[in-house]
Amino acid sequence: MTTAGSTVAASRNPYAEQAPVPTARFLHGLNPLAKLAAPLPAMILILFTRDLATPLGFVVLALALLLVGARLRAPAVVALLIGTPLGVAVLGVTFGVWVDPARLDDASTAASIVLLEVGEWRFTLAAYLVGLATALRVASIVLLSLIAGLTTTGPELVRALVQNLRVPYRLGYTALAALRFVPRFRHELDVIRAAHRVRGIDTGRGPVAAVRRSISYAIPLLASAIRHAERVALAMEARAFGAHHTRTERTVSGWRLPDTVFVAAFWLVTAAIVWWGLLAA
User: Fold this and answer.
1) Which regions span the lipid bilayer (predicted)?
2) Domain check: are 93 and 128 in the same one?
3) CA atoms of 13 and 36, how far apart (whole Å)
4) Minimum mean pLDDT range among 3-12, 103-112, 125-134, 242-251
5) Is 2 left (phi over 0), alpha (psi -120 to 50) or beta?
6) Whole-angstrom Cα distance, residue 135 to residue 153?
7) What's the confidence (pLDDT) of residue 202?
8) CA distance 216 to 46
9) Strand residues in 52-177 grouped as ranges (E)
10) What is the DSSP secondary structure assignment for residue 238, as one 8-state letter?
């Protein structure tokens, strides 16, 4: 029987077992390893494709999964829906400019369509299509990697690696502690810059002044980093980190049936897209 006092005590105890918080989007509830394993074969296959249909299919698939299964803010949604086609179009021109005309099929209709001509240099539709295929491959790989990147945090990935793939926890949590130094250093740098402004330190403008500012920031930032590293090392040693071969996990990251279903369904869709690309070619 649960009393009011025990309920209050449990709510104050950060180590008390908490009920799982339901997630509104399904990608956030999947195992991080499932979100890495599912698109991995597709990302490998994309490297060996040369057509337009296959990477385009994976771009549409990744966009659909991100929009339906991930919690995205409005700027991120706009960037995906508008930035992706614009980026692919621009990269298609950039990659198409570097295409060797000798490797193009001169007998094709696209090779005879000139989009831009400067002197003796011609930018044909065939060159743009080759560049567009390369841009689509790049975009598809980036979007497929965002399936795990936008829905998984560093601690979740480390827990999944340690508990599911048996990565030594000494390596996993040490790497996680090192990654957490980055926001700490960013905060310390903001504090140092604010302190310089309060003291009225003015190094001037221009590249030489930028180098002086960097040097003036480096020494106090290095001192702060050393102090923080010592505190982290003492905290880990006080908790006997690494003294035992195994570690009791506060949060369990297990492989469940939805993870298997997601990976299997993604691989089936991957095979269908590759088959469709072969037929379209």
Assistant:
1) 52-70, 77-99, 125-150, 260-278
2) yes
3) 34
4) 3-12
5) beta
6) 28
7) 67
8) 47
9) 114-118, 121-124
10) H
Same domain, 42 and 120: yes
Question: Does residue 8 lie in a domain region?
Answer: no
The answer to whether 35 touches 27, Cβ cutoff 8 Å, is yes
Residues spanned by the domain of 274: 29-152+251-281
Statement to judge: residues 264 and 125 lie in one domain:
yes
Residue 243 and residue 229 in one domain: yes
Residues 61 and 193 in one domain: no
Asked if residues 139 and 119 have their Cβ atoms less than 8 Å apart, the reply is: no
Tell me which range, 37-46, 162-171, 190-199, 216-225, is most confidently predicted by mean pLDDT. 37-46
Determine the Cα–Cα distance for residues 92 and 52; give it in Å rounded to an integer: 11
- Mean pLDDT over 119-136 rounds to 84
Residues in the chain: 281
Distance CA(278)–CA(281), nearest Å, equals 5
For residue 2, tell me if it sits in a domain: no
**Going by C-beta distance under 8 Å and a sequence separation of 6 or more, which residues neighbour residue 36?**
148
Helix (H, G, I), strand (E, B) or coil at 123: strand
Q: Is the whole-model pTM more than 0.85?
A: no
Tell me if 90 sits within 8 A of 136, measured CB to CB: no
| 142 and 193 belong to one structural domain | no
Q: Output the pLDDT for position 233.
A: 85
CA–CA separation, 81 and 69 (whole Å)? 15
pLDDT of residue 140: 96
pLDDT, tens digit, 9 for 90 and up, residues 180-189? 888 888 888 8
133/35 same-domain check: yes
Report residue 114: phi and psi, to 5°. -95, 120
Query: Considering its fold, how many domains does the chain have in total?
Result: 2
Q: What is the pLDDT of residue 6?
A: 41
Residue 49 lies in a domain: yes
- Once rounded to an integer, what is the mean pLDDT over residues 222-250? 82
